Amino acid sequence: MKQRNAKFNIGDVVRHRMFPFRGVIFDVDPEFANTEEWWNSIPAEVRPEKDQPFYHLLAENDETEYVAYVSEQNLINDESGAPLRNPQIAQIFDQAPTGQFKPKMSFAH
């Protein structure tokens, strides 16, 4: 299996290619690292390959805030500049004047 470099970084704001949610990346798995049960809950016609980076997002949609686990192929950069409201973001990140999210030192690996 070939090792791929992650396209997105911790602190990047992204949105899902097909579903109406967006969020900030707080962790990256180089390849799928969730349960088979989770994997099998994805409809086969949209189930992504496992051999790609997967991202943990502090995500939100119009109704709620939550944590999402999303394959690289299903994410695109969010260029909207709209503010994010997930309350966990402020616990993990500092936001630079440029709008970039930087992990707080206590969470840095």
Automatic annotation (TrEMBL):
<dbReference type="Pfam" id="PF08755">
    <property type="entry name" value="YccV-like"/>
</dbReference>
<dbReference type="InterPro" id="IPR053189">
    <property type="entry name" value="Clp_protease_adapter_ClpF"/>
</dbReference>
<protein>
    <recommendedName>
        <fullName>Heat shock protein HspQ</fullName>
    </recommendedName>
</protein>
<dbReference type="InterPro" id="IPR036623">
    <property type="entry name" value="Hemimethylated_DNA-bd_sf"/>
</dbReference>
<dbReference type="GO" id="GO:0003677">
    <property type="term" value="F:DNA binding"/>
</dbReference>
<feature type="domain" description="Hemimethylated DNA-binding">
    <location>
        <begin position="5"/>
        <end position="104"/>
    </location>
</feature>
<keyword id="KW-0346">Stress response</keyword>
<dbReference type="InterPro" id="IPR011722">
    <property type="entry name" value="Hemimethylated_DNA-bd_dom"/>
</dbReference>
